[in-house]
Q: What sequence folds into this?
């Protein structure tokens, strides 16, 4: 084993190419004929949304490296320039397949079901054309701002991610010369517009940009419109903050957000039949190269499909809506604090409701015995009931401390609004730590009881966001164990006053010693395997790209440790390498819910240690963020956490297994029993409620999964 070089770059996958493979798996859901049609278009929308963020952050960062002449190679031995070339080729193939799926498969299937999306305004009937033209004058024309470019009017700022229509004009008076003009498709208006149908059993829609393009001459009455085509520009959104020099972090981030709209153009999407001269002007003014231009054979930006998903009257083309189930331990009419005192409570969202977490803060805000509430917030919903409860608690005279992470990417502006609201209500608001993002998910309630002060804690793997909790799979626990309560207090003292205790009881924190803890746990399994004992690791996370962790997993595999990984997105580890990763399996589950929970299992010679938390196995989570990983201590809760891993390892419907050639493949073959882990957990959550109601049992773990 000592002769192997486990850090050999050939043993590692590039993280960006791995991310694009994840998007490929999402696209495969849109291509799956077994999935209801409107669910399939939702996955097409997700692919577009994922690519937007990928380009604004990851591709932008690589371009910055190239511009800075940064030569250091990545984990897979690739320079930034090499990565950009491979990304470009892979993205073009992905986008080509995405639009082929949309135009050649999805659009015809939608028509067959009576849903018509008019992708060309020229195809409108006479009655539809009259409606569209009238709709334009009444609802769209007053909002538009056409902008021509000439000697007195410079090329305007084209804002990041906005959809626009570019045109070439010629003066009707002189009939000479060609002028460039552009108009932004207003984001404040609905992009999918219902129009009269040609049959009673149909619903017909047209896109906003098609209506504008049809009527664009009305914006330039003194000109002839020679051509007009939609386009969209993506800009570098990966800003850096010098926190040591920033006197006011909130003000500094507000200023940086304005710059995001003016960042370097890194991707230009245009209609595939765009006029060459028009494209040349856009290319020159936006300073993009041919490698950055994507000619799109259909509507630009398919994220609008998420809106089409919501049309009424086509429930048969969707999954039956799942209603998160109540937590049995909390269905007794007693206060949530009394329920927690009876024993730790395990939460599994969205199979079980997120409402108890909201209720935990709401009840604490109103309870006269509660002295203080402390909580970290990374991403919250648009109308967050948790924010309202925290504000109410402060107004009720309780000590309320909230860490609002202003650096949560793409939620910065949103979080600034919440932070100001909480401050106005009298909460003590912390804006994160210098140089670190606070990504941990923890809430602490301090309550005075007959026995003295008692601390109640919620720890989770996901954000305190009641909206995403309906579609993200996450785990959490309620506990009032004294050891965890002491640690929770220490966490908030550290966050608010840089006071770190000498010893900790249960919680494991990044960036301080979480990396060392994981390496120690892996090495313990290696030692057990070398001593002839059974050794096993199961780890579920969003992403795996930390070189040191992967190297130690390779060492574990070489020593005979069985390693099963459930990694939704990025995975830089390769399987099937002789003498290196033959004992490692990797699977990715892409389904109706977004897999978000992090669970880590170590066999420990039969003692079975299980941890959950907010951290992935990525350098940023282990080294540059405040993360919390917590042990699952209660034996019944351990069974529940282990059961989640066991069922997901058996999934052969939504899981794709990583092969030695780097491709992901589904494992189901004709005749196998279908096991869909997400459906299994939905059924189990319902069954658990019925079981507890009849037997009063605390936790029920079925003997086998259901499909």
A:
């Amino acid at each position: 084993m000592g002769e192997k070089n486990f850090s050999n770059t050939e043993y590692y996958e590039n993280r960006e190419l791995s991310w694009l493979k994840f998007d490929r798996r999402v696209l495969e859901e849109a291509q799956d004929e077994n999935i209801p049609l409107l669910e399939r278009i939702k996955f097409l929308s997700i692919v577009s949304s994922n690519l937007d963020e990928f380009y604004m952050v990851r591709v932008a960062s690589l371009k910055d490296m190239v511009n800075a002449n940064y030569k250091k190679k990545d984990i897979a031995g690739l320079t930034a320039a090499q990565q950009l070339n491979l990304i470009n080729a892979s993205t073009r193939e992905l986008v080509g397949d995405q639009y082929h799926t949309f135009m050649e498969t999805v659009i015809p299937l939608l028509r067959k079901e009576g849903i018509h999306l008019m992708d060309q305004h020229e195809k409108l009937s006479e009655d539809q054309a009259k409606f569209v033209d009238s709709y334009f004058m009444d609802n769209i024309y007053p909002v538009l701002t056409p902008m021509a470019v000439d000697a007195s009017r410079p090329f305007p700022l084209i804002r990041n991610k906005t959809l626009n229509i570019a045109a070439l004009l010629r003066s009707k008076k002189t009939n000479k010369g060609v002028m460039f003009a552009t108009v932004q498709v207003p984001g404040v208006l609905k992009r999918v517009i219902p129009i009269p149908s040609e049959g009673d059993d149909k619903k017909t829609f047209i896109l906003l940009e098609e209506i504008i393009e049809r009527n664009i001459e009305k914006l330039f009455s003194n000109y002839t419109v020679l051509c007009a085509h939609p386009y969209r520009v993506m800009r570098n959104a990966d800003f850096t903050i010098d926190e040591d020099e920033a006197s006011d972090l909130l003000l500094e981030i507000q200023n940086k957000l304005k710059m995001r709209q003016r960042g370097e153009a890194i991707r230009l999407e245009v209609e595939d039949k765009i006029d060459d001269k028009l494209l040349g002007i856009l290319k020159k003014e936006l300073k993009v190269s041919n490698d950055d231009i994507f000619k799109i054979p259909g509507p630009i930006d398919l994220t609008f499909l998420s809106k089409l998903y919501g049309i009424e009257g086509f429930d048969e083309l969707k999954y039956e809506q799942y209603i998160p189930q109540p937590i049995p331990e909390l269905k007794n009419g007693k206060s949530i604090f009394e329920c927690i005192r009876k024993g730790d409570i395990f939460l599994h969202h969205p199979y079980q409701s997120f409402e108890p977490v909201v209720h935990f803060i709401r009840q604490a805000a109103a309870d006269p015995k509660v002295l203080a509430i402390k909580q970290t917030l990374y991403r919250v919903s648009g109308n967050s009931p948790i924010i309202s409860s925290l504000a109410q608690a402060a107004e009720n005279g309780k000590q309320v401390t909230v860490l609002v992470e202003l650096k949560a990417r793409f939620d910065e502006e949103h979080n600034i609004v919440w932070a100001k609201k909480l401050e106005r209500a009298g909460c003590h608001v912390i804006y994160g730590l210098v140089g670190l993002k606070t990504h941990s998910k923890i809430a602490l309630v301090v309550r005075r009881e007959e026995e003295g002060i008692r601390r109640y804690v919620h720890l989770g793997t996901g954000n305190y966001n009641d909206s995403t909790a309906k579609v993200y799979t996450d785990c959490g626990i309620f506990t009032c164990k004294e050891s965890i309560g002491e640690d929770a207090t220490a966490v908030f003292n550290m966050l608010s006053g840089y006071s770190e205790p000498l010893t900790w009881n249960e919680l494991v924190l990044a960036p301080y010693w979480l990396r060392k803890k994981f390496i120690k746990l892996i090495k313990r399994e290696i030692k057990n395997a070398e001593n002839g004992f059974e050794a096993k690791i199961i780890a579920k996370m969003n992403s795996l790209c930390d070189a040191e962790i992967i190297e130690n997993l390779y060492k574990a595999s070489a020593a005979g440790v069985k390693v099963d990984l459930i990694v939704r997105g990025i995975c830089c580890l390769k399987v099937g390498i002789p003498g290196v990763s033959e004992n490692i399996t990797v699977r990715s589950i892409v389904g109706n819910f977004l897999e978000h929970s992090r669970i880590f299992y170590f066999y420990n010679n039969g003692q079975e240690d299980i941890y959950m938390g907010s951290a992935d196995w990525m350098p940023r989570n282990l080294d540059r963020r405040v993360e919390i990983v917590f042990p699952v201590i209660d034996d019944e809760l351990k069974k529940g956490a282990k059961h989640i891993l066991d069922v997901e390892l058996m999934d052969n419907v939504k899981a794709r297994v990583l092969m030695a050639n780097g491709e992901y493949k589904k494992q189901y073959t004709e005749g196998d029993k279908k096991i869909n882990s997400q459906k299994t957990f939905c059924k189990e959550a319902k069954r658990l409620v019925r079981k507890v109601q009849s037997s009063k049992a605390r936790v029920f773990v079925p003997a086998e999964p259901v499909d």
In short: The chain has 18 helices and 27 strands.
